[in-house]
Amino acid sequence: MPFLSFDPEIRTVIYTTNAIESINARIRKAVKARGHFPTEQAALKCVYLAVMSLDPTGKGRQRWTNRWKPALNAFTMAFPNRIIATSK
After folding, report:
1. Dist CA 52 CA 48 (whole Å)
2. pTM higher than 0.70, yes or no?
3. What percent of the chain has pLDDT over 90?
4. Are 61 and 55 in contact (CB under 8 A)?
5. Residues 49-83, buried b or exposed e (16+ Cβ, 10 A)?
6. pLDDT 10s digits, 34-58
7. Residue 84's CB: how many other CB atoms inside 10 A?
8. Taking a C-beta distance cutoff of 8 angstroms, is the pair 46, 37 a contact?
9. pLDDT score of 46
10. In angstroms, rounded to a whole number, what is the distance separating the alpha carbons of residues 2 and 35?
């Protein structure tokens, strides 16, 4: 399987697509339950509340940030001409 030839750090990032699909499903569910929105601001508020309900403590962002650093390093080594390093 070509998937298993990647580094473990890169496979971790590929697994995150499942998390992204889960978030999209939750947003669709929240929007569909509401039906229609009188303004764009109301729609954005509904999406915001749906996303914030997924991580009420706010600790998930730090967890995912910690997982991306090794993955970016692995991507840089695996695909040297595709990732442009930026300095902060």
Report:
1. 6
2. no
3. 23
4. yes
5. ebeeeeeeeeeeeeeeeeeeeebeebbeeeeeeee
6. 888 999 999 999 999 988 888 777 7
7. 6
8. yes
9. 92
10. 42
Task: Give the span between the Cα atoms of 47 and 28, in whole angstroms.
Answer: 9
> Which tokens hold the place of 39?
């303004």
User: Is 40 exposed, middle or buried (CB count within 10 Å of its CB: 0-12, 13-18, 19+)?
Assistant: exposed
Q: How many CA atoms lie within 13 A of 19 on its CB side?
A: 11
Largest CA distance in the chain: 50
Check if the beta carbon of residue 30 is closer than 8 Å to that of residue 54.
no
Return the SS3 of 4.
helix
With beta carbons less than 8 A apart as the criterion, state whether 70 and 9 touch: yes
Distance of CA 54 to the CA centre of its chain: 12
The residue type at 88: K
Helical H runs in 1-88?
Answer: 8-34, 40-54, 59-78
- Give residue 43's identity as a one-letter amino acid code: A
